[in-house]
Amino acid sequence: MSYFFQIVISGMVVGSIYALAALGLVLIYKSSRVANFAHGQIIASGAFITYALTVWAAIPIYISFVMSMVITFLLAWSVERIFLRRLIGEPIISVIMVTIGLASIIDGLIYLTPFGTKNFSFPTFLPPEPIAFSGVSISWTQLVGVIITIFLIGGFSWFFKKSTIGISMRAVSDDQFASMSVGISVPGVFGLAWAMAGLSAAAAGGIIGNITGLNFDTLHAFGIVVFPVVILGGLDSILGAVVAGIIMGLIQQFASGYIDGNWGLSGTGEVLPYIILLIILLIKPHGLFGIHEIERV
Amino acid sequence: MAANRWLATGNFFTTYQEEQRTFITSLDRLIFSLFLIVLFIWPIFFSVSRTYMLVVDNILVAVIAVLGLNLVTGFAGLISIGHAAFMGVGAYTIASFSRILGDSHIIITHFWPLLIFIAGVAGAITGAIVGLPSLRLKHLYLAIATLSFQMIFEWAIKFLTFFNQGQTISVGRVVWFTGEVGRNDHYIFWYYVALVIIVLFGFVVSNLFKTRYGRALVAVRDNDRAADAMGMHPGFTKVYAFALSGFLAGVAGAVHAFLYKGAGIESFTLHHSITYLAMAIVGGLGTLNGSFWGPAAIEILNLQVEKFSEYAGNYLPSAMNLATALRPFTFGLVIVLFLMFEPRGIANWWRIAKSYTKTWPFRY
Prior knowledge:
The complex is a heterodimer. Chain A is mostly helical. Chain A has one domain. Chain A has helices spanning about 1-30, 40-55, 60-85, 90-110, 140-160, 165-175, 175-180, 185-210, 215-235, 240-260, 270-285; strands at about 130-135, 135-140. Chain A has a two-stranded antiparallel sheet. In chain A, a hairpin with a 2-residue loop joins strand 1 (about 130-135) and strand 2 (about 135-140). In chain A, helix 2 (about 40-55) packs antiparallel against helix 3 (about 60-85). The longest helix of chain A is centred in the N-terminal third of the chain and has 31 residues, at about 1-30. The model of chain A has no long low-confidence stretch (mean pLDDT about 85). By secondary structure, chain B is mainly alpha-helical. Chain B has a domain at about 45-270. Chain B contains 15 helices and four strands. Chain B has helices at about 15-20, 25-45, 50-75, 85-100, 105-110, 110-130, 140-160, 185-210, 210-220, 225-230, 235-260, 270-285, 290-315, 320-340, 345-360, and strands at about 170, 175, 180, 260-265. In chain B, helix 3 packs antiparallel against helix 11 (about 235-260), helix 3 (about 50-75) crosses helix 13 and helix 9 crosses helix 11. Chain B starts with 15 loop residues before the first helix and ends in a 5-residue tail after the last helix. The chains are: A mainly alpha, B mainly alpha. Chains A and B meet through helix 4, helix 9 and helix 11 of A and helix 7, helix 11, helix 12 and helix 14 of B.
């Protein structure tokens, strides 16, 4: 039974990271209807900036974590300003391909640094021995990561529910013309959405880096894995991202815990999200909490 | 019929058939025939090293693939981020024959044109199945659906022992009328095969858009409701677009498998799907000649980047591998710059150059 609960725990940990990673995608999609294929690369850059600040610049990790969030906030904002703003109103294929091109550019930039080829791991700053509770254990890093994730997602939800800027962002996602007519700068909101996605990506990157170590391939793979998550949750719902993230994390961990090794199967955790994605797209394309806006042909 | 068959100026059409001809003037036909002849005979006069011949072959295989991708993404407006997987289906069809029969079985060595066709059909069937979600989905959702097909395909190949878990499955050398195609002639031989396939399908595709089946694709892209009102079935048209593109991808994959004398998963990853999409965009989406410009441009760019990083590598610490960094960087930069400044691709430059030279020295 403890095996079962162990899998539940690790599923929750993975799931909360998925939720945080998916949050950035949802933020951008919600306001500007752009699917960001460069999200994995932004997550990776956030993680690497945190590492560089912590280890190379010897800044305490708590400060460097926040600093990297600020830096990535600015980076993502400038990415939107330079590349995406010119493409407002262009066909969807152009926008998708620009984000794919951006992913490629960031790939290239990261390969110029040592992070592209070598593996790094954060210095331990939390007690190394895991918290064990009747056979079920969770490491301090994972626990702190989950707590930070919960706080961040709570913060974002509050921001969207209560703050003026958050409300104006919701307004833009509802109706761009109406928001323009009441004086909201729509391009400004797009920029802000990217910037906040960058911020959440940096947080996700920092947490993933602390839990699994810094490996570029694993980090930017998150940019693709979040797609099943956001589709399951609904592309424009923050609550959906959280719920779907945790569901997907649990599914993955259960698949690798119970299916792998039996019936000659292996690596099912990697493929199951995509199979679920296809099923969701076929029967309920707007996801669990998304807005019903799919056009039937 | 216009009085002068050689010049575009003063030419006018009196019937729809005249307007739909592939070559408007005899000059066009002459230039195109000369160009084709040059394409067929240049390997006889210039001996190219095997390395460069492989690059040329790669371009041609990519042209076949991008021709298919252009059908589905350019003409029918359905974003496919799984094109390399369709190619993989074609390549692995050949590989399965090789695996079951042995890599130098008479079917592989003598009946390879048939096998290429079968690979195309396998690609078409897979394309139709993957295209089924397009009955309900559009745009981004469809892109993600094809993306997930790509991921599932990669996993399946890596998982199944029948496919050697993604390791290369060797395919034997083929036999032509002059005997077995040896090591020296291998790349030139497949150059000709790919060229013949491209010319064949180039004409098929260009003629397709003179028929109702081709026009239906464009109609559904531009306005699916209007197309529906005109009596086309948008859903089936989309599935059929995917099948067509899958066929071409399967053929391209089969040629790729024969060219490399084997099929391995590393040639059919997500990265390759994105590369084909980039080729289609750089060439010009929804244009036939864009399918030829794009692959050439991207492959030549890759070659130059590799040359440059080899050159620059002499001046840098040896631990740094510049090519791994520069390749994605320039690739991404080219995509982004094209989308920002020339979304219609190289085909647009070609169109401008053509219309300029056609009326020269007059400006109109």
